[in-house]
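Appendix B. Chain record.
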Amino acid sequence: MRDIAVFSGSAHPELAAEICANLGVPLLPVEVDRFANDCLQVQLQANCRERDVFLIQPLVKPVQENLVELLLMLDAARGASAARTTVVMPHYSYARSDKKDAPRISIGARLVADLMVTAGASRVLAMTLHSPQVHGFFSIPVDHLHALHELARHFRQYDLSQTTVVSPDLGNAKEAAHFARLLGTRVAAGAKQRYADDRVEITSIIGDIAGRDVIVLDDEIARGSTVLELLDRLREIGPRSIRVACTHGLFADGALSRIGSQDDVLEIVCTNTVPIPLAERTEKLRVLSIAPALAETVRRIHNGESVSSLFEPV
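Structure tokens predicted for this chain:
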């Protein structure tokens, strides 16, 4: 592919390398230095002039370090006369700060979007944003992908004749319904109320659960408090089996081991939008790659082809 330049920040170089392998282009080097006063400096070590530049950087822990690194990469690409600079952001952690639900609270999703545009982003490629309105916080084009097709391909290996897809809350019910249509299954949703970042209550579940194979679907799992609360409510109804799936497997504070230790959870499925250390993985974890989907989207953006056609039913 001519005139394309792909760089990766420090957040997830393994995913960037896999994307480049699918594209058939080299992953170009980036040098990140830290001065004595703790400031970062970034240098893109390949020609960017009049090239289509793609910067791959999910906003994962340490989020602030990776964000500043991304902003500096954007500034470097703009200063190097890139023709267009696209941020490939498989996980946008600030997307959860998407509304003013308390007095005098910041809306981080919009602020960080503005920062990226100011730093020089021409376009953003994102994967499963926390809520649809985050797309509108950007004043530049956003290609918003989802991983439902990748998850569906995995679950089609099972007998789905008695399966129900369950969303932990009504906010994710639309995505769960879409996923259920891909699988040809029923859908259900929990009624959730959040009291703190690590404390939620699910008062009821709407849908057919008893004696059925359940797939719990969420956009991301961080501390796992929502999933564990949902499992307690499901057990009161009596499903036949339980599997857990999400796009972003953050698994903070031992969430993966807590969910994996539940005897009735047969499997935990996520994608590689964020890095999951090998030492933290369990026997029940299945990590699916979204690199082919991201690579195909990058190719289509570069060639000016349709991206929406990637979401046609399969």
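Further analysis of this model is presented in Appendix C.
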